[in-house]
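Hey,
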Amino acid sequence: MVKAKYQDVLNLGEALNIQNGDVTEENGVLKIKGTANTQYEKNILWDKIKEIGGENPTDIMANITVADETVFARHTVKSGETLGKIAKQYYGNASKYQAIFKANSDILKNPDVIHPDQELIIPNL
């Protein structure tokens, strides 16, 4: 029953390619664990859990670890994106684009020039 309630969380975990995933149900509590690639992906998963179960859900326990803690996320640039748009997606604030630019100064020479398929590091702030 609880598993059905949180099916969207399990689907998201699959879409995010959560590694070492394990899901069990015990006494009406869904227990999930696994490893997200980055902190950003872990946050997305937790946002989905809270969206379904509320701020402090009692019917789900999640133990999500992060494989790569050196970055907040990795982002592959899509056509039409700007560093400002990307900063807004990850940090909720377009003006944080400078942090992304600095973290990628090895491949970016100008914050106004990014190209599709470049893989950018989104740094921990």
